[in-house]
Amino acid sequence: MSSRVGTAAEATASFACAGECVDPPLTGIDSGVWHAVERIHPPRMTGGPDRGVAVCGRAVMVAAKFGPFDRERFPDRTCHACTWVVAIRAGAVGQEIARLTGGASEPVLAVRVAAAIVAAQSQPGTDDELDHPRTVALLAAVSAHAPTPLISPECGDGGCEHPPRVPCPAVVVACLACSQRCGGWAGEGEGTCMPECTITAPCEVLRALAAHYRIACTDTGEAPDRPGLPGDRS
Ligand SMILES: [Zn+2]
Ligand SMILES: [Zn+2]
Ligand SMILES: [Zn+2]
Question: Are residues 96 and 135 both part of a single domain?
Answer without folding.
Answer: yes
